[in-house]
Specification:
574 residues; 2 domains; Porin; single chain; 6 helices; alpha+beta; 16-stranded antiparallel beta barrel
Length: 574
């Protein structure tokens, strides 16, 4: 049967409109981080919108948000009801049209047959005018129903679009819905400083503590990190206050002030990081200036509260220093316009101080006294390069690969340089049925090498020599149940028995606070279990088995770590 053209057009119109009308529209969603990716780049446009003029900023209230969502949902249900009603009525009309067409066909067949000798009226002929009238009435009824449907649909669509646009504007101005109770504060809500309504600065405080027991009399002699548990009993690993916020539409700033209490009970304070980051450079470029952690390897840029273990890997402490590689300088990064995330970093920093451990460090290295040097040219700066890329292996697994190198002068003599280089890998699996980020599995590995040009030390009877050593760690974290994560790490650093003066270096092993053995080969196994009571606190139990291969000794250490966080904090990098 062939339907009239306007009926076919109407069916096509309904099908197209149905596809448009009933496609879910996401108005507002809350992004989650675990991993999840690196991920990890801040939109310049969003930052600029966030820092629009104070007088125009309006926060959407939760009850208004719920009301709008309810209205939109009601409109959607009304459209669905109309569609179902229209389809039922249309089917009834189409069935009636089919019946009428069938009767007309039968009538036409009768008329086309040869007339009989009797001039009797042809059967059904007297009903043809009535059938045509009924057919016309049906068509007219369908046209009227289509017109009414289009009018109602247009009215609902205009209301829907108006409410949707209004809601999107409010959400764009206020990405964080206001609390239902205006006076009630939650721990994740930023603390507003020096403002009558706008959060100029966010402030947070993180406390990290540990209680340790060990077979080693001097637990500090086993530590490679400045924030590691360093004595039997209690250790204040890190008390960190962080300030961050948008300076203007072009820059954002962050500062981290760290407090520590040493083994003698004395309080220490230092500015760990304080830097500006650009938000509007062209060509996918980003600039960073101030004092900050160097983009080297996977773990170095992370603060202790973001580590998966209670202490720092041995290779990081031996090559990058107890407090990590950091210092005053500038960094330029470029996000490549590729389908996969690829970013290049180039950093220039000062090469002196205890945070430039393998370079112009004030402490003696490899039995040699530090030689005082000054910056004569740009050749005396510390240069670091890094490239990192990530890609999805499957819908549930992601891999991030990186390569880093740092080059600069060291303190054993003029024109003596150090190169530290490394490769790193991070792999993550997260179930497609994950709830709150669990379950998941991560695997992280770093391998580093160091080429150290040691200068001559006449007083110690040491000549010029080039020393090479390497180390690595590999760790796995398994989030087997919500809030519960089990981990296991293996550390290895090789020894340097060949360098001159290694005997003196080893004799000082037990007396050097962070002397984890420049000349000792070491192996460490570290299983742990972490319970996250919430996003703002955790408890971690860890066991370390240290095998100091250089002097055929082994030590056992148990650490109970606990942490709490006050105030707002950003998502960690993927």
């Amino acid at each position: 049967m062939k339907l009239p053209s306007y009926i076919l057009f109407l069916c096509i119109l309904i099908a197209c409109m149905g596809e448009w009308l009933f496609t879910p529209i996401t108005v507002y969603g809350e992004a989650t981080s675990t991993t999840d990716k690196d991920s990890q780049l801040i939109s310049t446009t969003e930052e600029q919108e966030k820092d629009a003029a104070d007088s125009k900023e309006i926060r959407i209230r939760k009850d208004e948000f719920d009301e709008i969502v309810g209205q939109l949902q009601g409109m959607k249900e009304l459209l669905l009801t109309m569609k179902r009603d229209y389809e039922v009525r249309l089917n009834e009309m189409q069935e009636k049209i089919v019946a009428l067409e069938k009767e007309r066909t039968q009538t036409t067949d009768v008329v086309s047959q040869p007339a009989s000798t009797e001039e009797a009226p042809i059967a059904g002929t007297e009903d043809i005018p009535m059938k045509k009238e009924e057919y016309g009435a049906v068509v007219e009824k369908i046209q009227k129903m289509e017109s009414d449907y289009n009018i109602r649909l247009k009215e609902i669509q205009e209301t829907y679009d108006s409410r949707l646009e209004e809601m999107q504007q409010k959400v764009a101005v206020a990405p964080q819905p206001a609390s239902p109770e205006a006076g009630k504060w939650s721990p994740e809500q930023p603390i507003t400083l020096l403002s009558t309504g706008k959060s100029y600065m966010n402030i947070s405080f993180d406390g990290l503590f540990a209680a340790a027991g060990s077979t080693a009399e001097e637990l500090g002699s086993l530590s490679s990190g400045g924030h590691d548990p360093n004595q039997r009993g209690f250790t204040v690993q890190n008390l960190e206050t962080t300030f961050d916020g948008a300076v203007d539409p072009y820059f954002k700033g962050q500062a981290s002030i760290v407090f520590q209490i040493d083994q003698d009970g004395e309080s220490l304070i230092e500015v760990e990081e304080a830097f500006l980051t650009s938000m509007s450079l062209p060509l996918n470029l980003q600039a960073k200036a101030g004092t900050f952690f160097t983009e080297f390897g996977r773990l170095n840029p992370f603060h202790p509260h973001a580590w998966d273990f209670a202490d720092q890997p041995l290779v990081n402490g031996r090559f990058l220093g107890p407090d990590g590689l950091r210092g005053p300088g500038a960094r330029l990064s470029w996000l490549a316009p590729t389908s996969n995330y690829t970013e290049l970093f180039f950093t220039v920093q000062d090469s002196q101080g205890e945070t430039a451990y393998s370079f112009r460090n004030d402490d003696a290295l490899f039995g040699r006294e530090a030689v005082e040097t000054s910056v004569r040219s740009m050749e005396d700066m510390l240069y670091t390069q890094r490239v990192t890329t990530s890609f999805d292996v499957t819908d549930e697994t992601t891999v991030l690969l990186g390569a880093s190198s740092a080059f600069g002068p060291n303190s054993t003599g003029r024109d003596k340089d150090t190169i530290v280089y490394g490769l790193d890998m991070f792999w993550k699996w997260k179930s497609s049925y994950a709830s709150g980020g669990f379950p998941f599995v991560t695997w992280q590995t770093e391998v580093m090498g160091r080429r150290f040009e040691a200068g001559e030390d006449a007083d110690a009877g040491l000549s010029n020599e080039t020393l090479n050593n390497w180390g690595a760690y590999s760790q796995i974290a398994w989030g087997f149940k919500k809030r519960w994560v089990a981990g296991f790490r293996v550390d290895y650093v090789d020894g340097l028995k060949e360098f001159e003066g290694h005997e003196e270096e080893e004799e000082e092993e037990g007396h050097h606070h962070h002397g984890e053995g420049l000349g000792f080969e070491r192996l460490r196994f570290s299983p742990n279990l972490t319970f996250y009571s919430s996003e703002f606190s955790k408890i971690r139990l860890q066991y370390n088995f240290d095998d100091i291969l250089g002097n055929d000794t082994s030590e056992h250490t148990v650490v109970l770590q606990f942490e709490f966080l006050l105030g707002s904090h950003g998502a960690h990098k993927f």
